Amino acid sequence: MGAWHRFATVLGVMEFEPDRPRWQQIADILRTRIKDGTYPTKYLVSEIRLVQEFGVARDTVRKSIRQLREEGLLYTVPALGSFVSPQGDGGEEDGVESNDPEAADSATDSA
Prior knowledge:
The chain is 48% helix and 9% strand. The protein is mainly alpha-helical. The chain has a single domain, classed as Arc Repressor Mutant, subunit A. It has a 3-stranded antiparallel beta sheet. Keywords: DNA-binding, Transcription, Transcription regulation.
């Protein structure tokens, strides 16, 4: 996280570095939150909450989430949302793959 972001965060205002895409900066922030335990394993990452927090369009947040999913830090269950993966899991949680609609049903039933 760069000095620019730390300064803006201290002020309580989300300011973005002008020379980098916002989705990359948000992905960096979320990556840090995942790795430092702010977002624990199985934590639901709410798109709407992130849109409100960062003051960006939902598509911007989705690009950030997509990047973290490709890195294996998040996995997505259809109709439920994106969750923090156990470290090193490669995007699967308890045998539930992100593109398995039946798994989403069973996850909903057990919740």
